[in-house]
Amino acid sequence: MVEAITFNLRVKLGIETEEKFRNKEIRRYHYLKDKGWKAIFIDSEQDYLPEDNVLIDMFNTAKNYLTNDCKWVKFKIDQNKIIHNSISEEFNFGKLRKIKDKDLQVVSD
Questions:
Q1: Quick check: is 42 in a domain?
Q2: Under 8 Å between Cβ of 74 and 83
Q3: Which among 26, 65, 97, 108 has the fewest CB atoms less than 10 Å away?
């Protein structure tokens, strides 16, 4: 199983502190890891996302790493990096767009 995008929107909206958000993220990550989940993190301090076709490429790239004994993959958009197993590599995200409300839709089962 894979968990996808994480947002700190509650911090940006002033609903909770950065410390509280980070503590919840750490607890959530360890809970999911203990249940056998793997994680894909997309990190952008400027709230940018690549185009949809690049997001699909990112998912497929992460999937390759995650099936080869990797527990997590982090895409650092602002730094053009992908990090996995503590290895940092360049990654071309192409043209970026600002995150919009439609990007934050909740997907239910």
A1: yes
A2: yes
A3: 108
- Domain residues for the domain of 43 are 2-104
- What is the spatial distance between Cα 59 and Cα 80, in angstroms, rounded to a whole number? 15
Angle at the Cα of 91 from the Cα atoms of 86 and 95, rounded to 5 degrees: 145
> Are 58 and 76 a contacting pair, CB within 8 Å?
no
Q: Is the pLDDT assigned to residue 102 strictly greater than 90?
A: no
pLDDT at residue number 57 = 96
Query: What is d(CA 6, CA 25) in angstroms, rounded to the nearest whole number?
Result: 9
Rounded CA gap, 12 and 39, in Å? 23
**Rounded to two decimals, what is the model's pTM?**
0.75
Decide if 109 is inside a domain. Answer: no
Structure tokens given for 33: 């890891």
Sign of CA dihedral 64, 77, 93, 6: positive
